[in-house]
User: Fold MinD/ParA family protein from Actinomycetospora chlora.
Amino acid sequence: MEPRDDTGAEREAGDAAPRSSTPPSGPSRETTSAPAEAERAAAPEPAAEPAPAAEGPAVAAAADSPDTTRRVDTAEAARGDAAQPRHPGFDPRVGAGPTGRVAGPPAVPATGERAPVAGRFTTPGRGAGAPAAGPGTYDLSSAQLLRPSKRPPQTGWRRALFVGTGGLVNPGESTSDAARRELIARVNQPLHGCYKIAMLSLKGGVGKTTMTTTLGSTFASLRGDRVIAVDANPDRGTLSQKIPLETTATVRHLLRDANRVRRYSDVRAYTSQGPSRLEILASEQDPAVSEAFSEVDYRRTVTLLEHFYNVVLTDCGTGLMHSAMKGVLDVADSLLIVSSASIDGARSASATLDWLDAHGYRDLVSRSVAVINYVRRSSGNVDLDRVADHFAARCRAVVRMPFDPHLEEGAEIELEKLSSRTRSALLELAATVADDFGRAGSRVRRPVIPR
Assistant:
């Protein structure tokens, strides 16, 4: 019996069946003959495909299986370098799908991030790798986020139409409404510290006390800080009669108890407050007692009040040589020179400016505001334009105050009872004074000379 050629049979079996990592079943190597073993040893080995450097356990696949025969390590698979399985009709080099249609490579953002899908509720973003945006790109203020709309009107037929249609028809604010809004913004300018205003006039009956109350009430009603008016008139001042009286305490009582004043509520016990939130510190009603109110007393009073109030108005008397007048002028930030719409009133106001220039207060004159007050219905034949030009050449500004029947009564003053023209003039006066708030405390104070 001839020996069996196992080598040829083994080759035929290898061509018919795929290779497997499992050893084929059959006769063991010990049962093969010596010649077959020698012939197989002499045959050259087939060239093996080089395997990549393995960083982990390798995965072997069948030689002719649909999957790749390449050895793949886990690190290579994580990087995406591993060969993909060859599905029927799929070529990884071209990207053809099962239908044979060629699809291009997927679009990848330049930054390596997945681009958001734009839809009904999705807005594509710029991404972290986008160029730096401008300073206003990320502004989330109301002016940037809210759609522009007209301001609702405040007066006139525009307001009536706006209210009558329930806000559906908005014609916008008028020119006068816009001007009023700008004036209110000027009145509400930031104020650091305490701003002190002195009301001066050499002539009585020009409405100086009335101007102190109305200007202080305008500030108090529009600004959120505290405003107080001090009566420094030695001749029985009437400032406390312009608002409802809440206490009989005077400036003399406040100075007497100054050591016990620690907070705002302590000062509030000595003042009266009107409907506009303006507070008034009254003077002594007895002229003999009020005459003792000296320069030192006034300085002590202002030093105490400036810790609790932002605006302090001082209603001065008609005498510039009064003992407290030097203290008033030394601590004041600005002056209000009040003149009536008459020749003698204008002359007295001009004489006040002359006296201030002659006594070293030229810087205070340049920061003063002149007020031409119509205490009567008509000024007669006086050319008030020339009067205004005279004061405009010497003062910072000139404001005309129209005649008002409510102020002519001489009773308690309520801003709601004033005419619209008077309220507009007061608003303009308050805005003009507030334009100097930025220089509060900038004056060079004179040293106090002890007596």
